[in-house]
Amino acid sequence: MACVVRPCTPRDLPDIMRLIKEIAVIYKVPLNELRTNVEELKEAGFGKQPRFECFVAEVPPQQKSKEGHTLIGYVLSVYTYSTWKGRNLYMDNLYVMPEFRGRQIGKVLHHTAIAAAWQKGCSQIRMHSSSEKPENIRFLERNGGEDRTVKDGWNLFRFQETQLRRMAAQSKF
Predict the structure, then answer these.
(1) What is the mean pLDDT of residues 20-49?
(2) pLDDT at 29
(3) pTM above the 0.85 mark?
């Protein structure tokens, strides 16, 4: 299958938003709970201070999806900093539409993001994966990822908007 992986451009953002919604459906997140939209993605990715890096997978028109889409996958990452390891990359989403899986597209997206991170001086990549998606965990392990929860007992914590609002209100900042 012919597939091009390239940097995301602002014109790709409606498709990125479509794919984000597909992921939300897979994880049973109500679409009305998504705060992200095309304009926010544009500002965050292409504004004065870009906050993320994104690569997309695109197939030629003759290989488009059942719904007629040619942009069929993406990887979206942010650069972070580790006090132990310095600059690193946090891969937030790596997604390929189900009908295009098993064709090495995810692997190419993954490796493209890693190569970009390496060129920018990163010493490690971090990514989370749902325990409800063992196929995703296997993919990451096959590509050299270590499950830190299993290996070292590290746990991922998230503070939701409600907690943020409450804590910010109590802050003396």
Answers:
(1) 95
(2) 92
(3) yes
The confidence band for 1, taking pLDDT boundaries of 50, 70 and 90, is low
65 DSSP β-pair partners? none
Cα–Cα dist 31/20, whole Å: 10
The whole-angstrom separation of Cα 112 and Cα 105 is: 11
Report all structural domains of the chain as residue ranges with CATH numbers, in order of start.
4-127 (3.40.630.30)
Mean pLDDT over 28-46 rounds to 95
